[in-house]
Amino acid sequence: MPQDGLGQPEFEKRGVAAALIHFMVTNPALIIPAVLMAAGAILSPVFLTTQNLLNILWTVSVLGIVAMGQTILLITGNFDMSVAYVVGLAGITAVIAQLYGAGLVASIVLGLLAGALIGLLNGAIIVLTKANAFLITLGTSILVYSINLILTQSKTWNVSVDSFLLLGRGKLFDTVYYSVIIFLLLGIVLQFMLRQTTFGRSLYIIGSNQRAGALSGIRIDRIKLATYVFCGTTAALAGLIMTARTGSTVANAGVGMDFDSLIAAVLGGTSLFGGRGGTLRTIVGVLILGVLNNLLVLLNIPYEAQQIAKGLVFLAVVWMDGLLQKR
Amino acid sequence: MQETPLLEMRNMTKVFPGVRALNQVSIALQAGEVRALVGENGAGKSTLIKILSGVYQPSEGEIFLDGKLEAVHDPAYALKLGIIPVHQEVNLEPYLSIAENIFIGRQPRNRFHLIDYRRMNEDAARWLAELGVATDPSVPLGMISIAERQMVAIARAVSLDARVVIFDEPTSSLSLRETERLFTVIRRLKEKNIAVIYISHRLEEIFRVCNSLTVMRDGALVATKTVAGVNTDDVIRMMIGRDLKDLYQKSATPVGRPVLEVTDLTVEGILNDISFTLHSGEIVGISGLVGAGRTELARAIFGDLPYQAGRIVVDGKTIQPQCPDDCIRAGIGLVPEDRKEQGLVLAMPVVHNISMTILGKLARLGIIRGRKEAQVAEEFVRRLAIKTPSIKQPVQFLSGGNQQRVVVAKWLATNPKVLLVDEPTRGIDVGAKSEIYALLNQLAGQGVAILMISSELPEILAMSDRILVMHQGRIKAELVGKTANEETIMRFATGQAA
Amino acid sequence: MWTKTRQFVLQHNVVMLLLFLVIFFSLTTGSLFSNGQNIHNIARQISFDIPLALALTIVLIAGGIDLSVGSVLSMAAALTMGLQPYGSWFSVTVALIFGAGVGLVNGLLVTKGKIVPFIATLGSMTVVRGIMLTYTRQQPIAGSDAAFTYWGAGSLGPIPVPILIVLAICVAVHIILKYMQLGRNLYAIGGNPEAAFLAGINVFRNKVMAFVLSGLLAAISGVLIASRLNSSTVHIGLDSGLWAIAAAIIGGASLTGGKGSVLGALLGVTTLGVLVNGMNLLGVHTYYQIGIRAIILIAVVAVDALSAMNLRKKLMMQSYGNRQ
After folding, report:
1. b or e along A175-201 (b: 16 or more beta carbons within 10 Å of the residue's beta carbon)?
2. Which helix (H) or strand (E) holds A248?
3. What DSSP state is assigned to residue B142?
4. Structural domain boundaries of chain C?
5. Residue C291 and residue A147: Cβ atoms within 8 Å?
6. Under a CB-based contact definition with an 8 Å cutoff, are residues A202 and A223 in contact?
């Protein structure tokens, strides 16, 4: 069955319900979470309230932005496990820059740059040595952690430019949070990029059959490097927003987002094998993850059990994804 | 002659999606019989052997050992039954020692049931000595030459409890002396009443060491004869079947200016001082055995294999390609050997596969113009008569012939001056083959210079204006007209002629 | 004997590295070898890392990887302490069975589930960590058997007891790897999976055993640490998996499979142990130590990848034979 977006327009003709069913059938990875969600609606009265759902959206925006960059990488068949600490690094960089007198724009740019540089480091090593992306980025994640510790000296640092806080706390027209808008907008723009641009097409080709792509003239190394820089930058953006929300920064902000961003992408139907997926799907995946988390909190299930649940769901989804690949 | 054959394979059929690799092939071997299995690439020999050795399961058919029906469900069981294959590409463990490779899975034990390395090395040395190999068996396999590794594989087969031993192109990397040793081994196997299957295209060897031969073609059995009852011409005729020159007449095309000049191209260890010129409208065939360096030559010209010396000039301009993209810009295209692994993205639709090489040209400011892309794809589907329900059909559902057309379409889209094609009709059934030939001829007529690599001699002979024969990284001969025939090509390809 | 040693040293850069570090730190700190106490400390410290490095070495030899060892370690420690009121032998047995069980699950996920080892063990790592957090309720558990601390904290003369236990384990693993069918099968599977399959080796069964051994060894490490600390906390074993990978690869194992040895694992752990010890003696701040260790991990993996690339090229060139 065609997995990329080329099939989509045909379904819009048949109606939303049919499209939804088809989406579920071609993405068996969503069945488990969807079932969980239905169970949640039954188990908790608070679950389906607007307030709760809006809360979920707000909560997941930061992870969602990280997941955007991760999705781009996953489509090419790569991973970035350093995003968690890059999130922290960006915030720290911005805050410290502000302490040295940087203004709103300068501190944001520096924060993004920090993420981009780590992305560049990851990409350069992985492209040049063809080393395992997983292990290399796990290594750089610890390196970034150490940098974070050194920069913060384990102390909490506060944002000193008030306008910066708007990034995380401000609302457009006093209704929708900027951070939510950024998250959703990013997802839509990236989806457009993936489906409609040469760069996006190249990503799918690299992820599906890199060799055929190389022999067709696609410049694999350059593109891979660019995706890593991009992923680092999006992680940085998420970090800036997170810092803007809390108003301060800690060395291990963003912990867990490496694994969570993977789960979110996989839940949304992006394959860990590469060549399949999209950012709109990841938005769905992130929302599902947020719902899952929310449910577990509402049902008073402790953090530890959440970890178990996440791990199991992750394995189940990956396994089903693997089955799908065999077809 | 016993009455019950030692080995019998009845009605062997194997169907893969889109291709029938084996069709009702039946063979029977007596104990002590040495049977040659001959046929061109794609004839089905290796499929038959893989079924016998438990790697594949047949779609239909049965295997009988000593008259008893056996279901050979995996290689471990085949080994237990005494069916021992010696593979063409030496498939051994490079990091383990020679002795370990010989005794893999059955290392000798001491009284504590632990592996006895001393005894293993001694036993290995004895087996190796029989084959004339004097290397220390405790040396890791990766450190010895390919020829020696082949001897190790043979030593392993011979040291096992065998009923049927299968040799697949065993002499391709062996010297004459080593080949003689192999023949001695085979004679000894014969004396032990072991049946031997000997796959080779070297007919002289077959006539020396085999009792009988089975000829296969296009997945089917052509004939089984005794070696005494046939000669070389008979065998070649049976292998090749209809002369494709009858099926397809190549029309003469006026040959134009030189578009590709390769001078002294050298890739260390693989290609040596390759020089030739390709003219517009010309089809030049490249012939040679596996390992001669043909595909590597194409890759080097295409920027996919770095070269250390030499010059490539396209249409008068010297190029120094760092990657295929450079070559595509210069006007070169490559239809690769393995269309599924190298030429197509199977999950993607026809239109995306065709546009892969010209994404830049189809885009404005990086955004692909979808309608233009579809237009281009539709045009090629029409022009090349690609049978597909729509351009949105994922190419994995197309037949082999149509998939190949999609690959050709992808390259035509780049308007190439030079088209390198590597095994253009591999895995394509006979009917579709002639259509591909017509297509290539049409392209040549339009001025494209074509370099065609092929292992199928009739194909090369029918299609080429000139034939370059490669052997061990060099061009050994250029054959035109009357001098171009199977025997001459094979003589140069196997290095027997200067 | 001498040629074999020379061969080993040349093939294993770790020996050079270790020598370099030892010399470097001896010169800069002066206290590396000056008192036996420091050697004693190093020995005790690395004894907890060695089973993990062995675990990773085994799995790497088979062509896989196991990220869950750290979590298994922490849960094993928790079980050892938590169930100790029922008897130390009992709690240790349960901990070991747990480790082997997780290994079994990992093995099945990789073979039957066809999930790539990285992903499979990433998932199981998370689940096991969750199980540990649930079991301990995120609280440390104190031990209830003072005699039990002998195994981790005790000394036999000048030698720490755990290093003796661990060295015995090393001998056992070495016997498995070199003198038993299982070990040789693992090398075959990792070195050339197709050849192993064609040779009749049951790839699935052997791979599962590799993971079971890995889980078991991780649990042993956890038991020893619990014995040493006479307690278990939620922090132990957090990054241990990554360091075990670094130690195993430094010691000669490769992500591509088919390579590795007990001696190599020992040398790898010792090298890292000397490094950490030296940094401590030099007073390098822990923040920088973390960074240095990260750089080492990255460098080790990158170098392994480069040498794998070189090896591929070399093997490919060999297939063309000798040409002038």
Report:
1. eebbbbebbbebbeebbebbbbbbbbb
2. strand A248-249
3. G
4. 10-27+34-314
5. yes
6. yes
pLDDT along chain B (498 residues), means of 10: 82 84 92 90 85 93 92 92 86 91 91 92 92 88 85 90 91 82 91 92 87 90 89 78 57 83 91 93 90 91 93 93 94 93 93 94 90 94 90 89 92 94 83 84 91 88 91 90 80 74
Q: What token pair was written down for C209?
A: 């055993």
Closest residue to B96, CB basis, from C181, C191, C315: C191
Residues 292-321 of chain A whose Cβ lies under 8 A from any Cβ of chain C = 302-312, 314-315, 318-319
Q: Which of A138, A255, A259, A324 should be substituted to probe chain C, the one whose Cβ sees the most C Cβ atoms within 10 Å?
A: A138
Q: Nearest by CB to A305, from C122, C130, C305: name it.
A: C130
Largest Cα–Cα distance of chain B, in whole Å? 79
Asked if residue A59 is part of any domain, the answer here is: yes
* C-alpha angle C280-C282-C288 in degrees, rounded to nearest 5: 65
Answer whether A253's CB lies under 8 Å from A91's CB: yes
CA-CA distance, C205 to C259, in Å (whole number)?
19
CATH 1.10.760 for domain C10-27+34-314: no
Residue B22, beta-bridge partner list: B14
Residue A299 located in a structural domain: yes
- CA of B17 vs chain A CAs: smallest distance (Å): 12
Q: Are C141 and C82 in contact (CB under 8 A)?
A: yes
Residue in A306, A312, A318 nearest the CB of C115: A318
DSSP collapsed to 3 states, A117-179:
HHHHHHHHHHHHHCCCHHHHHHHHHHHHHHHHHHHHCCCCEECCCHHHHHHHHCEECCCEEHH
Q: Which residue has the tokens 């999976």?
A: C193
Q: Which of B22, B143, B48, B46 is nearest to B93 (CA)?
A: B143
- Per-position b or e across C24-46, b if 16+ CB within 10 A of its CB: ebeeebeebeeeeebbeebbbbb
Counting the structural domains of chain A, the total is 1
Cβ proximity of A106 and A240 under 8 Å? no
- By Cβ distance, the residue of A131, A146, A314 closest to C302 is A131
> What span, in angstroms and rounded, lies between the C-alpha atoms of B421 and B407?
10
Contact list in C for residue A145 (CB cut-off 8 A) is 290, 294
**Look-up of token digits 């003709």:** A13
Tokens of B395: 């190419």
Domain membership of residue A29 (yes or no) is: no
Domain carrying residue A271: 46-326
ipTM confidence score: 0.89
CB C251 within 8 A of CB C264: yes
- pTM, rounded to two decimals: 0.89
Best mutation target among C290, C300, C309 (most A Cβ atoms within 10 Å) is C290
Q: What is the pLDDT of residues C263-296, one digit of tens each?
A: 999 999 999 999 998 888 888 999 999 999 999 9
Please, which residues bridge with residue B65 across strands?
B7, B68
List the CATH number of the domain containing A128. 1.10.3470
Q: Can you name the residues that pair with C231 across neighbouring β-strands? A: C142
Q: Provide the chain A residues 200-259 that lie in CB contact (below 8 A) with chain B.
A: 201-202, 204-205, 208-209, 211-219
Angle, alpha carbons A221-A227-A229 (nearest 5°)? 105
In a domain, A35, yes or no: no
C-alpha distances (whole Å) from B289 to each of A238, B463, B470, C320 are 57, 18, 8, 12
* φ/ψ of residue B9, rounded to 5: -115, 120
Instruction: Give one DSSP letter per residue of C97-139, joined into a string.
Output: HHHHHHHHHHHHHHHTS---HHHHHHHHHHHHHHHHHHHHTT-
- CA–chain centroid gap for B137, Å, is 31
